[in-house]
Design goal:
4 domains, Elongation Factor Tu (Ef-tu), domain 3, OB fold (Dihydrolipoamide Acetyltransferase, E2P), alpha+beta, six-stranded antiparallel beta sheet
Length: 345
């Protein structure tokens, strides 16, 4: 009787190329596209309802603060103003007469020929006339304000982006007659993903490079001016503003690219070829290092890609990282190093 013994299969050894990567101490760059907007962008309406009697500007006109833009028909308001002026004049006359009568009885009172009640009546008459005149003056001021509100003035310097009323048209306080946009103080509005909030909120100065989206545009060096610490519940982004210089050659509504230099994190970045990164179905990534001639897996985070290179965080320090044959590689596979790039530190 003979027995047959089978020898265990020898584990397959995988030949691999490895690299000792250099750690990058450069800052991470966040690239975004934003919209240039004005600090002041107002939809202007009149303070009174009425017919448009005169228009002084058209779309595209530049205006200074205080320039008259529009006048409504103020005929009835001016008639009421004239009536209020006449009423004030009548009040002055009535007050003067009341004061004359009061002085008259005061003179007679020295001769003891006037009753004390008459003196009191004349004194009350003066007080009543003064109060009446004050009321009429207030009515005059009110009517002067009403007349003034039949004209619309520019609240700040800028350009008329649109005009939405014509001569003879009836407008109300709800009618958006003009859109006035400031030109001098522009800023870039950005939507920053919420995961970068912690890196930006406590920084006093964050550098931003702005590149306008038109030919031959020069890059603009600026700083992050404001980070609004409220996240949009739909997009999960934070609003940020970058103040632009006056010579930026930009106008409101344009698009521009922004590169935000993020503060350096605690983890240093390692650049590897794409072939060294194993992508997971759930969106994660991992790499393999050669430890005691066996494959050891490390979970990493892909931070940035440039061409065939990938920047990752979470890579082990001073380890030979596998660059080839990782598609079917598993933890514990026996490895044989075929070629080495770089040197351990």
């Amino acid at each position: 009787m003979t027995s047959v013994f089978s020898l265990p299969a020898r584990a397959e050894i995988t030949q691999v190329d490895v690299v000792y990567p250099k750690t990058s101490h450069s800052h991470q760059i966040l690239q975004l596209t934003g919209t240039v907007e004005a600090r002041q962008n107002a939809e202007l309406s009149t303070q009174q309802s009425g017919l448009v009697a005169a228009l002084y500007v058209e779309a595209g006109d530049k205006v200074a603060k205080g320039d008259k833009l529009l006048t409504l028909d103020d005929t009835l308001a001016r008639l009421s103003l004239a009536e209020a002026k006449a009423s004030v004049e009548a009040g002055r006359v009535a007050q003067a007469e009341a004061e004359r009568l009061y002085k008259e009885v005061l003179a007679l009172s020295k001769q003891k020929v006037v009753a004390e009640t008459l003196i009191g009546e004349r004194k009350a008459g003066v007080a009543s006339a003064k109060a009446e005149l004050a009321m009429r003056r207030a009515s005059l001021a009110l009517q002067q304000e009403v007349v003034g509100r039949h004209s619309l003035y520019a609240p700040f310097a800028g350009v008329i982006a649109s005009r939405n009323a014509d001569l003879g048209e009836w407008v109300s306080q709800q009618t958006r007659v003009f859109n006035l946009v400031q030109q001098q103080e522009l800023r870039l509005n950005l939507a920053i993903p919420q995961e970068y909030y912690g890196q930006l909120i406590n920084r006093e100065k964050v550098a931003v490079t702005v590149t306008p989206d038109f030919a031959d545009a020069a890059a603009i060096e600026a700083d992050l001016s404001r980070l609004v610490a409220v996240s949009n519940s739909q997009s999960r982004t934070l609003t940020a503003h970058v103040d632009l210089p006056a010579n930026a050659r930009l106008v409101a509504g344009m698009s521009a690219k922004a590169e935000i230099k993020l503060p350096q994190g605690k983890e240093n970045l390692v650049w590897l070829p794409k072939s060294a990164i194993k992508q997971h179905p759930d969106g994660g990534a991992s790499i393999f290092a050669v430890v005691d001639n066996k494959a050891k897996r490390f979970l990493v985070k892909v931070v940035k890609q440039q061409g065939e290179k990938v920047a990752i965080s979470g890579a082990p320090a001073n380890q030979a990282l596998v660059m080839s044959g990782i598609e079917l590689m598993r933890e514990g596979h026996e490895l044989k190093i075929n070629s080495v790039q770089g040197q351990p530190l």
